[in-house]
C-alpha cells in the first residue's frame, strides 16, 4: 500500500488570526483524545485530504466531496497525521457520519511503518441519517506518527461524506489477551469445544447438539465490573457457516444475570460486533462468554480483538 503521506494533499487549515478578533469557544475534546480538532470547531485545521477529495466545514461538520472511481479504498482519503499511540493501550475510535448515498467506507487508525498496519479498523455503512460509529483495539507497538484515516476510494458514483466528533481515546480494557497475541492464555472452553490459536485468532471447534446455548462455551473468568459503569463488549468473529451465537458478559451470582448481552449472526467473513449496557451491581468475578451450544451441525468459530471497555 502506498504511503498516504506521499500523495499530493490539499493544503487545509491555513488561517490568519486577526488581532482584534474574539477567541471562539470550542467544545471540549474527550479526556485523553489524541485527535486534534475532532469537533471541527476550528474549521479543517489538522485535517488533510487527497487532491481528488476536496473538504470544507459545513454546519460544523467536515464534508468531503468523494469522487467516483479508484482502484482501491485509499485512492481517496480524509485524514490526520502525527497521532501518537502507545503499545499495550486500548484505543477507541469514534465518529459521527452521514453520506448523500448509502455507502461503505473504511475508518482506520494506521501505523507509520512500511506495512501501514491497522491499529483500529472498521468498515461502517454510512447513510443519510446521522449515526455514531465506534471501534476499538489494542495497539501492538508504540507509534508517534500514526494516522486516523477515512478511506473512501472506489465509489461507483460521486457523493458527499460528512464527519463530526472524531475522537481517538485510550480506554480501560478488562479482558486479558483479547488480541490473542499470547495464544489462548486467559481463555477456557467447555470440554466438548476444543480451542486453539490459529492465525492470531482464537478458533473453537463447535460440536453439534446440546439442549441449550450454554452446552458449549468459550469464556474468560475473573472480570471485574462496577455498578453504574457502562461497558462495551466488542469482538471480531467469523464461522465456517452462518450461525447465531450468544455473546454475554455474565455476573457470578446464582442467577448469572447478563450485564451485556447480544445474539450476533456470524458468517464466513470476519466482522466486528459490539454490544453495551450499564452494570447494575459490582462484581469481581464476572465472565465474558461465547455460548454456542445447540448447533444443528459442527462448525468452527474464530474470534479476535475481544474487548470489554468502559
Would you kindly provide a written description of the structure presented here, covering whatever features stand out?
The strands form 6 sheets. Strands 1-4-11-7-8 form a 5-stranded antiparallel beta sheet, with no helix packed on it. Strands 2-3-12-5-10 form a 5-stranded antiparallel beta sheet, with no helix packed on it. It has strands at 48-49, 55-58, 61-66, 77-85, 90-99, 103-104, 106-110, 118-122, 125-126, 131-138, 143-151, 159-171, 188-189, 195-198, 201-206, 217-225, 230-239, 243-244, 246-250, 258-262, 265-266, 271-278, 283-291, 299-309. A hairpin with a 2-residue loop joins strand 14 and strand 15. It has 310 residues and is mainly β. Helix content is 0%, strand content 48%. It folds into 2 domains: 4-171, Galactose-binding domain-like (Jelly Rolls, Sandwich); 188-309, Galactose-binding domain-like (Jelly Rolls).
Present the secondary structure layout.
Blueprint: E1 48-49, E2 55-58, E3 61-66, E4 77-85, E5 90-99, E6 103-104, E7 106-110, E8 118-122, E9 125-126, E10 131-138, E11 143-151, E12 159-171, E13 188-189, E14 195-198, E15 201-206, E16 217-225, E17 230-239, E18 243-244, E19 246-250, E20 258-262, E21 265-266, E22 271-278, E23 283-291, E24 299-309
Protein name: CBM-cenC domain-containing protein
GO molecular function, one term: hydrolase activity, acting on glycosyl bonds
Domain CBM-cenC: 33-153, 174-293
